[in-house]
Amino acid sequence: MAARRFTAEELQAARDRVVPDVVADGLTVLFCGINPGLMSAATGHHFARPGNRFWPVLHLSGFTPRRLAPSEQHELLSYGLGITNVVARATARADELTDDEFREGGRLLTAKVERLRPRWLAVVGVTAYRVAFGDRKAVTGPQERTIGDTRIWVLPNPSGLNAHWTAQTMAEEYARLRVAALDGPSS
């Protein structure tokens, strides 16, 4: 089934909307996007823009047995996975967000993680992580910081705009988290 095409007006009307989290208590990994794009806000599905590589990378890395469509996002819960965002409001581009929004998002995200207690929080975007958590030197991979017992892993942003990472190199990094989260001791 082909994805519905939205007009420019429909996408702009989705600006500032919030896409509901896909969460549950005690998840293995809570993936955390930067903020919803306009396509995600228009559809109500995380990582919905056709060029976004989140869903293919999730499958390539072994987190899901097949490539899920954004409309199947609630199936993630059956795999112990969930999705939230650092900043809830939708924008056309992440660079429309302010540092204050990121810092407030980090505070709210910390409270959410304390409440839900996932084993791992996976922030998809090192720059968003750096600003939200005040850690300017953070790099991709596992972090020293924890939120309670929740470990943190910073993953590459799957946006098609992130040309530094291919789907394959992203899948390799996501797979490192999968192994740590599902198969072995914390790394």
UniProtKB/TrEMBL annotation:
It comes from the Bacteria. It is an enzyme of class 3 (hydrolase). Its EC number is 3.2.2.28. Gene3D superfamilies: Uracil-DNA glycosylase-like domain. Keywords: DNA damage, DNA repair, Glycosidase, Hydrolase. CDD domains: UDG-F2_TDG_MUG (cd10028). GO terms for molecular function: hydrolase activity, acting on glycosyl bonds. InterPro entries: MUG/TDG (IPR015637), Uracil-DNA_glycosylase-like (IPR005122), Uracil-DNA_glycosylase-like_sf (IPR036895). Residues 20-183 form the Uracil-DNA glycosylase-like domain. It holds the Pfam family UDG. SMART domains: UDG, UreE_C. PANTHER family: G/T AND G/U MISMATCH-SPECIFIC DNA GLYCOSYLASE, G_T MISMATCH-SPECIFIC THYMINE DNA GLYCOSYLASE. This is G/U mismatch-specific DNA glycosylase. The gene is mug.
